[in-house]
Amino acid sequence: MTTSHAIEIAGLTKSYGDQVVLRGVDLAVPRGTVLALLGSNGAGKTTVVRILSTLLRADGGSATVDGFDVAAEAARVRESISLTGQFAAVDEILTGRENLVLVAQLRRLEHPQRIADELLERFALSDAAGRRTATYSGGMRRRLDIAMSLIGDPPVLFLDEPTTGLDPQSRNEVWQTVRELAGHGTTVLLTTQYLEEAEQLADRIAILHEGRIIAEGTLAELRQLFPPTVVEYVEKQPTLEEVFLAIVGHDDAGHTAARNAEHAVTQGEPR
Amino acid sequence: MTTTRLEHAGHVGHAGHVAGDTTVLLKRSLRHILRSPDTIITTAITPIAMLLLFVYVFGSAIRVGGDSYVDYLLPGILLITVASGIAYTAFRLFTDVSSGIFERFQSMPIARSAVLWGHVITSLVANLVSLALVVLVALAMGFRSGAGVLAWLAVLGILVLFTLALTWLAVIPGLTATSVDGVSGFSYPLIFLPFISSAFVPTEGMPGPVRWFAEHQPVTSIVDTIRNLFAGQPLGTGVWVALAWCVGLLVLAYALAMRTYRRKLG
């Protein structure tokens, strides 16, 4: 069991005072898959991520990450994970390169400079490497943030609303990164309130509502449960984005827009 | 891959991790200070302004016995320097917490206490630089001391203890504050405390209850001890009171800060 699932959660509960946030969450994420945890604001998505990343103790239930119990073996869990929180957690006074070197040093890796250079290259941040991150755009900060999370190749990655507040171009860049990670076998637990994001990235989708997982499965499985909702969103959202990206131009984005437009058309066809 | 990492972690003991991680994080926050040296300068400016104001404006009206007033005033000004300096420590910690980088560190396989120690040692370094600036200005204003190397080292030791005590106190608002105002607000009473002590004027002239408070609060014993060390006077029992205050405050502040930290970690 523990070997096939990177994350296993059973009966997880958490309250803040009188306010019950998690009422018994059960969830299993197979290794090497991307799971999107969907839910509206305040559904408890961040609470789940904070418990899994050992930042918060659960009131009840159990959770293991990479086979280690988050409460009893927190230090082991931290060896296996990386967290990208809701707000890009970069050091604003340091440069992009210094941020990466800092994380590499804290993970006690050899050749932190080389690791930093490789990631700067991979995330198209080489030109901005020597600039303080306070001068970065939202998208660049998020890319740096995710790059910092990849240092040390943690087998499990938590992305808490990675695209909230990003413009469409930056969002597409983040999506591309997550797809690459999934291709390399990293297990990703992603929280989002955007249905399209889940659809684009996730192998499996879990819906957290009122403190419980009310539905979990592949997109195809979920479609059978709630056909009208899914179809409606898929038809509407990409259309506006397509218009926006087409107007704004931008080489990369145009390419993605074209791909998305194509995608939207196929998805939009009557079934 | 997981096994390699765990073996790697197993090679170095816990103490080694704390020291190594603290060094990395110390370098980080020292770099912050180097990039905004204004924090050290503004820390030193208020005490220097007070020094100028009290020596050149009020000083002629203040009787402190045989000493020159700048000699009399410097020890208290040094404590005010530390009290205003630690506000930046709280601010830097608050910035880490509110920017999310604190949580990033907490979710990484590093020694958890290293995050605080990095800030604490940075605070010590920054405050010592500010203190040196203030002493240089005082020397330019005519401050003279016949103190030998040992006495100077004793002054340094007391100031280090005092800085550490106030720094650990500053960790608490740094971790818990919800706004920038809340962070800096806590240091105002600390800056004000030396005014009701022997720092500016001798306590003898104060009315009963004020005098009682002034003579029994930590600043007076610490100020008197530093003043005696500078003047080459015998220390008497006051030095033990001063040390007891410093160490007692340090232990209490450390315990409260660590409790706050553990609560913060859930």
From TrEMBL, chain A:
At the highest ranks, the source species' classification is:
Bacteria, Bacillati, Actinomycetota, Actinomycetes, Micrococcales
Q: Name one GO molecular function term.
A: transferase activity
- PROSITE patterns per UniProt: ABC_TRANSPORTER_1, ABC_TRANSPORTER_2
Family matches, as InterPro entries: AAA+_ATPase (IPR003593), ABC_transporter-like_ATP-bd (IPR003439), ABC_transporter-like_CS (IPR017871), ABC_transporter_ATP-binding (IPR050763), P-loop_NTPase (IPR027417)
What is the name listed in the Swiss-Prot or TrEMBL entry for this protein?
Answer: Glycosyl transferase family 8
Q: Which SUPFAM superfamilies match?
A: P-loop containing nucleoside triphosphate hydrolases
Quote the subcellular location field of this record: Cell membrane
Q: What keywords are annotated for this sequence in UniProt?
A: Antibiotic resistance, ATP-binding, Nucleotide-binding, Transferase, Transport
List the Gene3D superfamilies: P-loop containing nucleotide triphosphate hydrolases (3.40.50.300)
Family classification: Belongs to the ABC transporter superfamily.
Instruction: Read off the SMART domains from this record.
Output: AAA
Q: Does the keyword Transferase apply?
A: yes
Q: What is its membrane topology?
A: Peripheral membrane protein
Origin species: Terrabacter tumescens
Keyword Transmembrane in annotation: no
Q: Which residues form the ABC transporter domain?
A: 7-235
From TrEMBL, chain B:
Major localisation: membrane
The protein's name:
Transport permease protein
Similarity comment: family membership? Belongs to the ABC-2 integral membrane protein family.
Tell me where in this chain the ABC transmembrane type-2 domain is found: 38-264
Write down the species: Terrabacter tumescens
Q: Which residues cross the membrane?
A: 40-60, 72-94, 115-143, 149-171, 183-201, 237-257
Show the taxonomic lineage: Bacteria, Bacillati, Actinomycetota, Actinomycetes, Micrococcales
Membrane topology type: Multi-pass membrane protein
- Keywords carried by this UniProt record: Antibiotic resistance, Cell membrane, Membrane, Transmembrane, Transmembrane helix, Transport
Q: Which InterPro entries match?
A: ABC2_TM, ABC2_TM_bact-type, ABC_2_transport, Nod_factor_ABC_transporter
